[in-house]
Amino acid sequence: ISICLWKFRGEFSKIKAEPILILKLLMLGFFLLQSSRGTALWLGGATVNVLPFLVAAVALLDGPYAGGAFGFAGGVLLNLNSAGVEGFASLSLGLFGILFGLFGAYYLRNILFSALAGGMVCMAVESFFAYIFHDLLIYGMSLPQAMGLFGRQLLLSLPVGALAYVLVSAVHRRFTEESL
User: Which residues pair with 6 in a beta bridge?
Assistant: First the structure.
């Protein structure tokens, strides 16, 4: 199955729908695992946040357009289940996917460490803004408490983020080898 998509330069390109569908199902599966009541992992008030790592892996392996699209879609899913600032997750994950895809194309190798570092940077920026606009203003949380919460969230998210990178790279390898 191929889909013709109009690119910004005004030319058509053939893009296979199977890897996009598999990655979208993978994103939906990770979202459901991290946000459902029975399957979400908790540690001292912190939960798993695997979508920044998934967006980093897609942006690193498939480029900035795919990273931005998956980031925006993942942000929409997070906004549906969040009590935070509306639209912030869509904006931040979409922009992160684009910027990390561009940065990764020039300066990083497609390895696990690069994807984990990108996901950690995204989580740190999101946690900073969540602290300013949510935890500090609404709950009056102190900075050491917020740093502890971020550390626990990072501790829970890193192993699942590594699994997300392995799965995304397997899909990427499967369909790039097929197209050669």
Answer: 12
- How far is the CA of 174 from the CAs of 95, 117, 127, 180, in angstroms? 27, 24, 34, 11
CA angle, 172 then 178 then 180, to 5°: 105
Distance CA 51, CA 155 (A): 15
Mean pLDDT, all residues of the chain: 81
What's the whole-model pTM score?
Answer: 0.82
85 contact partners, CB below 8 Å, separation of at least 6: 129, 133, 134
| CA dist., res. 30 & res. 50, Å (int) | 7
SS (H, E, C) 105-170: HHHCCCCHHHHHHHHHHHHHHHHHHHHHHHHHHHHCCCHHHHHHHHHHHHHHHHHHHHHHHHHHHH
* Residue whose entry in the numeric block shows the structure tokens 């790039």: 176
Please provide residue 45's backbone torsions phi and psi, each rounded to the nearest 5 degrees. 90, -10
Whole-number Å distance between alpha carbons of 157 and 2 = 34
Give, to the nearest 10 degrees, the angle between helix 143-179 and helix 17-35: 160
Query: pLDDT digits over 123-157, tens only?
Result: 898 888 888 877 777 778 888 888 888 888 888 88
Residue 73 is predicted with a pLDDT of 92
Of 15, 20, 21, 11, residue with least CA distance to 3: 15
